[in-house]
What does this fold into?
Amino acid sequence: VRDTHPALQVDGAAVPNTHHVDAAEYLRSLPVPVEPLEETEPLVRADSVRDLRGLRRDLSARAAEARLPAGSESALEDFLLAVDEMTTNALRHGRPPVDLRLWVDERRLVCTVTDRGAGLQDPFIGYGPAHGDDLSLGGTGLWLARQLCDHVDLTGDDDGSRVRLTIRLGWAGRSAEQVAE
It folds into this structure.
């Protein structure tokens, strides 16, 4: 946080921050953490997604079959809504093909949605509704995903855009140390 402020308070006076970095530049420089589940076989692999209704049904059924921890139902519903929003965004704003991967273990759900679009250039995208307080104008998908998921990672390169959604499961009855693992 310190690096993103152009001035610092020192002894009650504002002084220039010699280490200041533009906030957008700073966000772009942050590494996307590695997700070990992505090194395993996904529970769902959907290539060239076009049928959102069928995808929703398949994701719900496959996640239910995965025997998630007790009390995960609400987290699953939130996660599936976020996945639906990101898949819809990829189909609407990206370029085909849109591919989806879903991983599940006893601790978390992870989903990636990729497309071949130019990517999301604004590092602040999704930290608020796209059209401000008037939610009727749309533009709330990424913002909603950020509200519903524990982690939303956006990456892109010349090959396209990628959104990774992660939500932790089974927090009920676990100690702070277990959750931190």
Remarks:
- Helices lie at 23-29, 52-65, 73-93, 141-148, 176-180.
- Confidence is low (pLDDT under 50) at residues 172-176.
